[in-house]
Backbone:
């Protein structure tokens, strides 16, 4: 009788801890989250430095609980929902700490938590690969202490959430490449599906992961089972992403009538890019390939070297797991480069942020063995030496190279980085003259002006596409009838019948005309016969951005023209 001996199954907990104190990872997570959060609070509260998209997401979270008609769909469908959903509990706490809403600190907490989680995932990959303790901390430092990681961990944006999900997916795909455990493949798919709820750019990463899984499965399977095994594995990794895409699209279609609002909505990214192209003929400081390369290599100068190492190791040593970071991170970076070159996006510097964990994950993947016992006994082997050099260089070279680029207007072209020139050179670039340092100042003043009137609920009509900062800065948010309210359309069409006393209009020449400007094209210039101008405010520049009109009543229909007499011109 034959007996089958099975090796003990190593659980995820055992693989992640390897006998080390369980609190080490938790302590690391708490320290990094506190660091990123503290940096963000100082930048926002002390220096008024932030990316407008960050507090805008906080406003979206606030609409769901503090608007006149609180409901979850008020979160909006132009941006993916997960970051704002995470911020909802923190916005709710603003009843006791108003800065969470007023300064957008809820967003800072969101990004700091996700970025600390991404670094913790990198540490987990290093543990899985059996890196010695010292090199494991070098890998963590190469990501956690990178200036752009600190900056965007503190920013309140969605890049941190996207990075967390993609590093999470990379970790399980690397495990699957070694063990072919279906569970790891499923977790990778869940990570990618969750990632789609943070940013649409996860779609290229999911496509890269599916392609890698298909190729590896086809190569490893028996000839008779290749097709079936390949289809099943691709379905496992792709199913969560497909479900996330379908559910989010169908939900948007049911509520707003748009499957993909970011592309089809008047307020979406595609519309904003088109508007920018129509006005200035470009979307950023330059879309040539040399600019794309400069930004990618400026973010992480070892990107090309790391990709070449991954391909070489995969070919020579048949370590396909070295290609996992290239397939996942590289696909998204390639999309960012192509989209910038063809002016499909604004080409912000932060779109290349994933190059930082990609290089470090490649170095970890190229280590000699994923088995801790073999890694320790062999001294990491010859193949670990280039990986160790790559990790060391990431700390000693990549960080010093990227740091000064934060204030380089040609490379670090973006709304957040442009603020730092006034900190480095306040004499040559006075903060009060820097548009990036004047964000939300006018909105806060206007909100206080309205708050002082002690208006009743639903007295101010406002489209929050560009005026969200006014709502966010107000102590009485229910005084506004905003875009997500159920009666917004009725108030827009008949403000004189709906108790509207004031209408906040935005300059249609400076951005996409909002719903109010489209309904009343002459409102900005003349009041459209329904309101009179009583307040005006600039934006971040000296250009007039906001006007407040007091509703005077229903417009008077013009007298009909006299009928023309045959053979005689009308008077």
Residues:
């Amino acid at each position: 009788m034959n007996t089958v001996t099975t090796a003990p199954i190593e659980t995820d907990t055992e693989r992640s801890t390897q006998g080390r104190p369980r609190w080490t990872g938790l302590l690391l997570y708490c320290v990094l989250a506190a660091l990123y959060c503290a940096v963000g609070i100082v930048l926002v509260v002390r220096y008024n430095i932030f990316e407008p998209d960050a507090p805008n997401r906080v406003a979206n979270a606030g609409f769901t609980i503090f608007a006149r008609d609180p409901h979850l769909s008020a979160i909006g469908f132009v941006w993916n929902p997960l970051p704002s959903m995470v911020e909802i509990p923190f916005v709710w706490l603003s009843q006791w700490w108003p800065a969470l809403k007023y300064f957008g600190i809820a967003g800072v907490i969101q990004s700091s938590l996700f970025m600390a989680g991404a670094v913790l995932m990198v540490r987990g990959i290093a543990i899985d690969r059996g890196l010695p303790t010292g090199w494991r901390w070098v890998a963590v430092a190469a990501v956690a202490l990178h200036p752009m990681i600190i900056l965007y961990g503190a920013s309140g944006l969605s890049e941190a959430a996207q990075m967390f999900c993609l590093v999470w997916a990379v970790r399980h795909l690397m495990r699957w490449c070694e063990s072919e455990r279906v569970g790891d493949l499923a977790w990778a798919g869940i990570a990618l599906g969750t990632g789609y709820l943070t940013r649409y750019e996860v779609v290229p990463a999911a496509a890269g992961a599916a392609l890698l899984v298909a190729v590896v499965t086809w190569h490893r399977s028996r000839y008779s089972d290749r097709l079936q095994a390949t289809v099943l594995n691709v379905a496992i990794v792709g199913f969560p992403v497909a479900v996330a895409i379908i559910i989010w699209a169908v939900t948007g279609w049911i509520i707003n009538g748009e499957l993909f609002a970011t592309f089809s909505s008047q307020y979406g990214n595609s519309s904003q890019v088109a508007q920018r192209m129509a006005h200035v003929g470009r979307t950023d400081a330059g879309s040539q390939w040399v600019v794309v390369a400069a930004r990618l290599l400026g973010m992480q100068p070892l990107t090309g070297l790391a990709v070449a190492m991954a391909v070489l190791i995969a070919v020579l040593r048949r370590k396909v797991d070295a290609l996992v970071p290239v397939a996942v991170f590289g696909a998204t970076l390639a999309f960012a480069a192509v989209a910038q070159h063809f002016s499909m996006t604004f080409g912000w510097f932060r779109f290349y942020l994933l190059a930082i964990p990609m290089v470090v994950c490649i170095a970890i993947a190229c280590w000699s063995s994923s088995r801790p016992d073999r890694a320790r006994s062999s001294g990491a082997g010859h193949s670990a030496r280039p990986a160790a050099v790559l990790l060391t260089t990431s700390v000693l070279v990549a960080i010093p190279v990227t740091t000064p680029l934060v204030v380089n207007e040609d490379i670090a072209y973006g709304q957040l980085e442009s603020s730092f020139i006034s900190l480095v050179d306040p004499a040559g670039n006075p903060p009060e003259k820097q548009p990036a340092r004047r964000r939300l100042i006018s909105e806060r003043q206007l909100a206080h002006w309205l708050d002082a009137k002690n208006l009743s609920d639903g007295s101010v009509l406002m489209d929050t596409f560009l005026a969200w900062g006014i709502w966010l800065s107000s102590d009485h948010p229910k005084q506004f009838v905003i875009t997500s309210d159920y009666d917004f359309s009725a108030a827009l069409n008949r403000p004189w019948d709906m108790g509207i006393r004031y209408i906040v209009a935005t300059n249609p020449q400076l951005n996409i005309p909002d719903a109010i400007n489209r309904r009343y094209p002459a409102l900005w210039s003349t009041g459209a016969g329904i309101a009179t101008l009583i307040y005006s405010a600039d934006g971040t520049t000296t250009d007039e951005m906001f006007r407040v009109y007091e509703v005077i009543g229903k417009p008077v229909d013009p007298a009909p023209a006299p009928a023309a007499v045959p053979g005689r011109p009308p008077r």
